[in-house]
Amino acid sequence: MLKPGKTSKPVAAPLENPMIASDLVPANACGKPLSEDQIWQLLQEVKDPEVPAVSVVELGVIRKLSWQGQQLVVDVTPTYSGCPATDLIEELIAAALMQGGIRDPQIKRVLTPAWTTDWITPEGREKLRQFGIAPPQGSVSKMTLLGHDQQVTCPHCGSNHTEQVSEFGSTACKALYRCTDCLEPFDYFKCI
Amino acid sequence: MTQALTQQQTLQEYLLRLADSNLIISQRLCELCGKAPAVEEEMALMNVALDLVGQARNWYEYAADLDEAKRDADTLAFRRDAHDYRNLLLTEQPNGDYAVTMVRQFYFDVWHYFTLQSLVNAPDERIAGIAAKALKEVTYHLRRSSAWVKRLGDGTEESHQRMEEAVESLWRFTGELITHDQVELDLAAQGLAPNPEQLAADWKGMVKEVLTEATLSLQDDNAWMHLGSKKGIHTEHLGLILAEMQFLQRAYPDAKTW
Asked: Which CATH superfamily is domain A22-115 in?
């Protein structure tokens, strides 16, 4: 079990080889070259359809950008094996890139390494909290198989006096909690 | 089996066992949609089912890539007959009361957890990748189902009694989880399936630990067991599950729009 206040600071997921040689970047539809930053900005506009507060970048599901010849390849990893938003997220990413002038981007689904909540960026966590969803707390390695639930901080009033109502919430990635101080129920983004 | 299987057929056979077990227990859980005892439990059951169907899809897609008849994942999932399914008999047993639903899940989750823990190290990148992803989800499933076994077993007089009945009535389907055939032996030798002795020891150990904490009776390891799913011999329940699950795919083959 995690001790309160001892949660390690989340770090942004380092992308494996976040390379795009700028001389390879083709021009967009208007003839203006797109920098790697601009591509990330396009992706930043794609929100998780089930948690619209955070973008797919902040969620940590974009693993790599690379070029195969003239084609942009985006490695995307699903949060959960059965996440029904996976197909939609991939379509939204492709649509956003095409709208930004990238021709025929390829969205590649990768399972390895498996997504972990440790990859949600600090900005993503703050946005989740503001949206009323308690961000994942602590790191996955601290979880015990048959142990007790970890302490979760209420995203509304900041109290640590909370209790689990259900191991699952409105989506597979969340659990349902309630605050015993402000009495508000809230979703908790499970730590996996 | 009269004919020796090729390596590719052996692997596909094993992948189908994993996929079918996931799909069928998921289908059983989905029968509780709209009828679970509490709304929180309903959300939990449906989310567990969703994880399992997602994992089934990953295994079916791999099995489809190895398929000599070039069937795709949907065809493997929805267009085979009962004798072609390789799901564990435990997974097709009816939901019963909530004690039965949770004990079935618990027995399955323990098996699933240790199976995946072994497959994570398989010398096949695709198997290891699917397993690593699934293991995170199944760890959570096992936490949940074991907590329910303890809560209901060590609960009221009635919940204890019902749990005793569930633990006993489903026991005869657990032999399959920890016995093995040639397919598993061949693959285990290559690290592509769990070591059968290890899996059996791990399964028995954790089940004993949780049942004891739940104040429930330990069952006889030497009890008579129903076997057969690895050869496609099922209980009468599977046919009824398939009749419902496959109706749409049989009535409207290859339907793409609704």
From this structure: Fe-S cluster assembly (FSCA) (3.30.300.130)
